[in-house]
C-alpha cells in the first residue's frame, strides 16, 4: 500500500510539472491538497491523472 501511495504522490508531482509546461505557471500543492487527491483516487478508484483532467475540464467551462 505504501508503494501505491508513493506512486500517487509521484503522479501528482508530475501533474504540477505538466501544468507548468502547459500554462507557464508554477504551482506547488499544499500537503492537504495532495492528501485530498490521494484520498479521492483511493476512494473513487480512479487514477490521479483523471482528477487532473476533470479539474481542467471544469475550470475551462467556468
Keywords:
single chain, mainly alpha, 3 helices, 81% helix, 0% strand
Structure commentary:
With 62 residues, the chain is an all-alpha fold. The chain has a domain at 29-62. The protein is 81% helix and 0% strand. The protein is built from three helices and no strands. The protein has helices at residues 2-23, 31-44, 48-61. The longest helix has 22 residues, at 2-23. It is globular and about 35 Å long. The model has no long low-confidence stretch (mean pLDDT 83).
Please provide a brief summary of the model.
The chain is mainly α and 62 residues long. It has helices at 2-23, 31-44, 48-61. The relative contact order is 0.14.
Overall structural class, as computed from helix and strand content, comes to mainly alpha
**Share of residues in strands:** under 5%
The end-to-end span amounts to 36 Å
Largest sheet features? none
> Count of helical segments?
3
Total beta strand runs: 0
Rg, Cα atoms, Å: 12 Å
Helix content: over 70%
Any low-confidence stretches, pLDDT <50, length ≥5? Answer: none
Kindly state the mean pLDDT as a whole number? 83
Principal-axes shape call: globular
List the helices and strands in order: HHH
Amino acid at each position: 500500500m505504501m508503494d501505491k501511495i508513493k506512486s500517487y504522490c509521484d503522479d501528482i508531482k508530475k501533474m504540477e510539472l505538466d501544468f507548468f509546461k502547459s500554462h507557464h505557471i508554477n504551482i506547488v500543492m499544499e500537503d492537504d491538497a495532495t492528501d485530498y487527491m490521494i484520498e479521492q483516487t483511493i476512494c473513487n478508484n480512479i487514477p490521479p491523472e483523471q482528477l487532473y483532467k476533470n479539474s481542467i475540464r471544469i475550470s475551462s467551462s467556468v
